[in-house]
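User: I'm curious whether this sequence folds into something compact or stays loose and floppy. Could you predict its structure so I can see for myself?
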Amino acid sequence: MIDPYLSMIAFAVVVDYNSVKAGARELGLSEAKTSALISDLEDRLGKQLLIRRARSFELTAEGMRIYQTAREMLEIGTEGLQSFGGGRKTRAQVLRLDLPVLLSGGILREVVQDFLLAHPNVSIEINFEQDTSEKGLELFDLVVSSDSPTSTDISFRKIEGTGAAFYAAPDVAERMKGTPVQEIPAKIPILLCSDHSASDWAKLFYRGAGSVFPAISYRIKCDDIELVHNLCRSGAGLAILPKSRVGADLASGRLVPVLEELPVRQPEFFAQWRKNNGRLALIKTFLDHVDDRLQRLRAEVSHRPSP
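Assistant: Here's the prediction. I'll summarize afterward.
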């Protein structure tokens, strides 16, 4: 007879790794043996715990409840071994994130660094090939997108950043002085990132123009906000940047705020996850950490002295 406690452990580890193959490798068992343990657990309980798919699985409501119990069992057992000199660390929980490349670098580095230091038993995998489809939410625990979800099976939390504004290197700002707003796009190179399109810029510069013409021409358009930031700092053109990124540049004088009279649209992001995800507690802990870090940054930005 297969040991029911081993079945519970196998179930917890497979859910932790979101993969039978990876869970089996961690357990030192074959995939077939690991699958058999989970099937045995389902048979014993008379409940379906996993909805199996081609390359992944989804926890049922009962599966999520059993997972929480199984994980507690695993942690208690590991702590017990450690107390007797076993020395093995608590098994890491893995959190898989899918993010827009626009969020790479900058504040994300700080958020992840702080979170990992505060939660030594958590591992994070980050993917920047944005996939907001149903498949994406099967492969990842948390997907961050500029689109809010429409499915009732998906929970979400709005992420509010620190705001965005126009910035330019001092020599570019000097060239802009005395230039009517509508003439700036013809005289100053424009640097675009994916979150503010040429159409968004046109609406800002040609307010009341009805059909928003002429269109904005630009020197570069890309998803990499760090590249746009560096180009702006080097004097290559005018950019809209998150306020959280430019504190050191404002203090050193490498960037200055410009066009402060124009109302820049503030980007919105939505963190999304499946309601029956087995890592709900970990997801919410991570999002609480993000909210706290952003709240502190907003306070820093609002109290930052003007250059």
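Summary: The CA atoms of residues 133 and 143 lie 10 Å apart. The first helix runs from residue 4 to 17.
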